[in-house]
């Protein structure tokens, strides 16, 4: 028999009932094997599972040497279920019982405020929102007349909640598969979503529609009092899959419509037919950039919590003035007096800051 290394000897001792640093992990895996789980997920290759939890991995590797391959696959699935699925459940229930890192990852933050914006938690408490305010899951963001707020998620995606609107953070889960979901009770949301991994999801839901997004700038408007156009979805860049829903469940396995740049879909009445049309690009930009009620750059700085205006000079000599509210390896996202603009880094040849008098 192959000689065991030190870790394997300890695992064997734990399997035989002795107490050591592996005892808890062994007991956990054995408990999982004794339960019947229903979990709708395809698992990756077994070898990739072994990298998730070091001690569980060593236990699995030891069993791999001493048990048949079929049992090893079951054990690997059970270990991943314990370490991944339970963690995901704790993210979604908002209990805060997970570790501190997980607790932080399920929050979104306000990055821009104009006018009167409040946050209402699930227990009914209301507070004034400002730059840096944390929005936990299930909390609602409410904007008054001539008011708006930008909210940023952990992976850099942002939404703008426009005037006279109410929206809530429905779900945030980060992991092998990530999910961000917002529920729009009334009003207008514009979203700026980074390109995502294939299985990641970013959805904006109304009571009757799911707008599922992959790498795009788009807007969802919901007005239950409008008998002809209760939901209107407008796409500036990328694509959006539109699916009818009821009580949080899609009413069809496939999207009703796929919208591309400059497409707009209108729901004819609450829960009614979804009609798609193409509109002109200038008209679309006007739709996406409306409702921006900042009067001057001083108010822009105050709303974003900044002290200096940034001037970006582009390769065509254009000078863009505003505040950089987000950036990644490819783009700058700039809040300007004309609205939010995404600029490729490759087009920016210089930048400088200016204090206003």
Features:
3 domains; 357 residues; SH3 type barrels; Jelly Rolls; 16-stranded mixed sheet; 39% strand; globular
**Secondary-structure-derived class:** alpha+beta
Whole-number count of domains: 3
Mean pLDDT: 76
Q: Roughly how much helix do the residues carry, as a percent range?
A: 10-25%
CATH topological fold name of the largest domain: Jelly Rolls
> How many strands?
21
Poorly predicted runs: 35-52, 67-104
Separate helix tally: 8
Query: How would you characterize the largest beta sheet?
Result: 16 strands, mixed
Which CATH class of the largest domain is shown?
Answer: Mainly Beta
Gyration radius (Cα, Å) is 25 Å
Q: First CA to last CA: what distance?
A: 81 Å
Strand/helix succession: HHHHHHEEEEEEEEEEEEEEEEHHEEEEE
What is the level-2 CATH architecture name of the largest domain?
Sandwich
Principal-axis shape: globular
Q: What is the strand content? A: 35-45%
